Amino acid sequence: MTGTTLPLIVFAGAIIYRNYEKDRAEASARVLETARSIRTVLDAEVGRITGSLQVLSLTNSLRRGGFESFKRNASGFLEQYPPGGVILIANRDGRQMFSSLTTDTASLPPRNNLDAVKKVFETGRPVYSNLFTGSVRNKFILTVEVPVFDKGEVIYDISFSPPISMFQDILEKQRPTSDWTISMLDGEGTNFARVPNPQETIGKRASPTLYAQMFKAPEANYETVSLEGVPLITAVSRSPISGWIVDAGIATRSLVGPLWRDLAFTIAVGIFLLLIGVAFALRMASAIARGEILHVLLVEELNHRVKNTLAILQAIASQTFRGASPAERNNFEGRLGALAKAHDLLSQEKWQGAGVQDVVDRVIEPYAISDSRRMRITGPKVPLASPRAVMMSMVLHEIATNAAKYGALSNDTGTVNIDWRLIPDTTGEKLQLTWAETGGPRVATPTRKGFGSRLIERGAREQLGGSATADFLPSGVVYTIECALD
Question: What is the side-by-side strand order in the sheet with 180-185?
Fold first, then answer.
């Protein structure tokens, strides 16, 4: 009996170990996908901050040095974020011309991160800082900085330091289980958000085993040891926008523990089943070989599927637009951001759809920060199915972008009226939404249709089941969008 039992036990053990190796490979892929998902969430938040700052930089009172008048705009911006955020305006020398913390700017010290200020003036592009100690509050901060232009020249650097707790909240919500260690690190590998033990690790460099590998590639898997001394299967994903890094790791003990447990259980069960019959024993050994860890990973895969799809799309975009112009990249990133906002809205509603009011509010949020009175919105409560809500968000994003570049939102006097109503249709009712601009630059009918115009017309026809028309009146452009409700 021993001669027969031993080969069966060895065979069952080999099956379990082979499944363990498979689960380990799947765990490595899952860790990388998790890092990508969190990095996508981080990029969306950073992109939202950058876009809002760029809108804020267009304020006339700021460009004319009217900082007292600008304070109201700054307060409206800060209300969009948790308490603790600070807006600063600095000149080329790093002198603070405005601070949301105090009106006594004469007593404020120069900016601590002068390298970032200098880079904004030299490049005329947004800059994302590494973690440093602020000169006023003496606390760890990160900054998102954008240039303020006047007549084509950079005259100021507008900086926003979001509260660090905002990034910590992202990690707390995204962490799958307590076996995971997840960090957000700046471009030099310093932690600015982390689970577990944020209080002890924020401001510290990544563990030596991770730091030695993390700068070799934008995305990769490694075996590392955490700052707490826990062996991990780790993955890193670096943001192409900010240069900040997300690393995620799962404790190897979560895989090894089930391996030894399954081996011990299989040996005992194998001996017992041998008394019943060799065939039944082999069948049971194969079934037991499937550990609990695979089930957990599959459930996590389901929870992150949509976010992983966006992460893959972001990676494809980074490769596709590597040689593209800044305008092309900005257009694509804006459209991707609109898609992400639509996804967030539908996630809140459990993908059952969204109201027209919610879709409109998400699209115009960046433009309403500086002066919400320029946006007049009216309409009844109308639900949209999830596919139509996504396309309506994309169409309105294209229209709003055109308005900010060329239309009523490109100056300080233009206004936009957005209203919608239900109108009779052959199958019941359909939605008619009107976007009407006034007070902007004089309108001229475009000589050709770009990608945005084609997206609006084709999206309305094929995805909304309706139509989209544009009337280029001297007083301002008027878009009329019709959408089926079935």
Answer: 191-195, 180-185, 245-251, 231-238, 219-225
Between CA 382 and CA 354 the distance in angstroms is 9
Which amino acid is located at 399 in the chain? I
Mean pLDDT by runs of 10 across the 486 residues of the chain is 53 57 80 93 93 92 89 91 92 91 82 91 95 84 94 94 92 88 94 93 93 92 92 94 94 65 51 53 52 41 44 50 56 56 54 78 77 86 84 86 86 91 88 93 82 84 89 91 88
- Both structure tokens of 455: 């997206």
Region of 180 (left: φ > 0; alpha: ψ -120 to 50; beta: rest) is beta
Written as six digits, the tokens of 456 are: 């609006």
Q: What is the rounded end-to-end Cα distance, in angstroms, of the chain?
A: 70
pTM for the structure as a whole: 0.51
* Rounded distance between C-alpha atoms, residue 112 and residue 97, angstroms: 14
Domains in the chain, please, with CATH? 165-253 (3.30.450.20), 342-484 (3.30.565.10)
In order of 41, 112, 178, 216, the CA distances from 173 in angstroms are 11, 32, 12, 28
Cα distances (angstroms) measured from residue 65 to each of 59, 123, 159, 397: 10, 22, 16, 31
